[in-house]
Amino acid sequence: MKRPITLTVNGTVRSAVVEPRALLVHVLRDDLDLTGTHIGCDTSQCGACTVLIDGLAVKSCTQLAIQCEGQAITTIEGIGTIEDLHPLQTAFWEQHGLQCGFCTPGMILTAADLLARDPDPSETAIRHALEGNYCRCTGYQNIVKAVQAAAAAMRSARAAAAGSRVNEPAVAPARTGQPAGAAV
Ligand code: FES
Ligand code: FES
User: Fold this and answer.
1) So what's the architecture of 3-78 in CATH?
2) CATH 3.10.20.30 in the chain, residues?
3) Which fold has domain 87-164?
4) For 13, 20, 34, 120, which has the most beta carbons within 10 A of its beta carbon?
5) Separation between Cα atoms, residue 59 and residue 44, nearest integer Å
6) Ligand 1 neighbours by CB, cut-off 6 Å
7) Full-model pTM
8) Where are the alpha helices (DSSP H) in the chain?
């Protein structure tokens, strides 16, 4: 018998009526129309269905949707936009980290989990993190390069943001003169 569930996906509360046995990947794709999460095997081997659940990369074909109520789910649709790509998306593009693109959403979300835990991973750590994600096209070299490039870009952005905070005045300068628009 179907039952209503509420999932928080990409920061938005979404509702669906699903069978208790429904897998998260099927609910995301079929009920919530988030088809960026792919199905490559349905047997928890390929990683194409990877999403973030409370920040951790999880193969969504291994989770029942009802298990995920109350957790924050992030799919590839929620990590960046066409106008404002996530650094991993930019790096996969620039480093030619994809060919057909079928594995790419899962690769990016797995890498996002890694970089959240380890901002400067070694090549070995990157390969270890991605070992549950299969790619039939690229030979992995450029995927690893893309993750390295994204990690460097994210470290630079953080350093720049920290630098601009250091350069901010501790106390706002005293106002002088009239407020804009004041009658004189
Ligand atoms: S579809 Fe989930 S691991 Fe392949
Ligand atoms: S880019 Fe085709 S499967 Fe990875």
Assistant:
1) Roll (3.10)
2) 3-78
3) DNA polymerase; domain 1 (1.10.150)
4) 34
5) 7
6) 39-42, 44-49, 59, 61
7) 0.88
8) 24-26, 87-94, 104-117, 123-129, 141-166
